[in-house]
């Protein structure tokens, strides 16, 4: 198999836009890079693409994603990409592990209101699903 094709079949990003009003946003459902292709900035490129689409085409206010609270390497990567921890969702993963809702404001959110962290954790039943 051609090396270029193998590389691209080993990386993926999946996302969507959802919400209403100032909650209209891009959501990262999943991003994955096979171990042999990591440390090449591929996840950054995928995230930038999803952010650009959410910003320029879909006119969202922010992009969000959920990550396991124990996944320190991913959290650090997202922070380097400009994401902040917006809120902690208690027992988000399988009712056992907390999740972090991380957000990055887009150009439409001039005042960056969408990324002001909540002061208390929430439970999964408090999440809004649009």
Topology diagram in text:
Elements (H helix, E strand, L loop, with lengths): L2 H6 L2 E8 L6 E9 L8 H16 L4 E7 L3 H9 L3 E10 L3 E9 L25
Parallel strand pairs: 2-3
Antiparallel strand pairs: 1-2, 3-5, 4-5
Description:
The protein has helices spanning 3-8, 42-57, 72-80; strands at 11-18, 25-33, 62-68, 84-93, 97-105. The chain is an alpha+beta fold and 130 residues long. The chain has one domain: Gcn5-related N-acetyltransferase (GNAT) (Aminopeptidase), CATH 3.40.630. A hairpin with a 6-residue loop joins strand 1 and strand 2 (25-33). The chain is globular, with a radius of gyration of 15 Å. The chain starts with a helix and ends in a 25-residue tail after the last strand. The model is unreliable at 1-7 (pLDDT under 50). Residues 1-107 form the N-acetyltransferase domain.
The CATH architecture would be 3-Layer(aba) Sandwich
Q: Decide which structural class fits the backbone.
A: alpha+beta
Report the helical percentage: 10-25%
First CA to last CA: what distance? Answer: 41 Å
Proportion of residues in extended strands: 25-35%
Main sheet specs: 5 strands, mixed
Shape: globular
What is the CATH top level name?
Alpha Beta
Oligomer: single chain
Strand arrangement within the widest β-sheet reads: 1-2-3-5-4
Total domain modules: 1
Descriptive tags:
NatB_acetyltransferase_subunit; N-acetyltransferase domain-containing protein; disordered N terminus; 130 residues; single chain; 5-stranded mixed sheet; acyltransferase; transferase; Aminopeptidase; Acyl_CoA_acyltransferase; 24% helix; 3 helices; alpha+beta; globular
């Amino acid at each position: 198999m051609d090396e270029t094709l193998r590389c691209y079949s080993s990386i993926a990003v999946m996302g969507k836009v959802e919400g209403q009003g100032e909650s209209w946003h891009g959501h990262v459902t999943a991003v994955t890079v096979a171990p042999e292709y990591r440390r090449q900035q591929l996840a950054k490129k995928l995230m930038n693409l999803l952010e650009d689409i959410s910003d320029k085409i879909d006119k969202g206010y922010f992009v969000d994603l959920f990550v396991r609270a124990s996944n320190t390497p991913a959290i650090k990567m997202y922070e380097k990409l400009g994401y902040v921890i917006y809120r902690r969702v208690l027992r988000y993963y399988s009712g056992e592990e907390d999740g972090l809702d991380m957000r990055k404001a887009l150009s439409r959110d001039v005042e960056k209101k969408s990324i002001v962290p909540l002061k208390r954790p929430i439970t999964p039943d408090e999440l809004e699903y649009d």
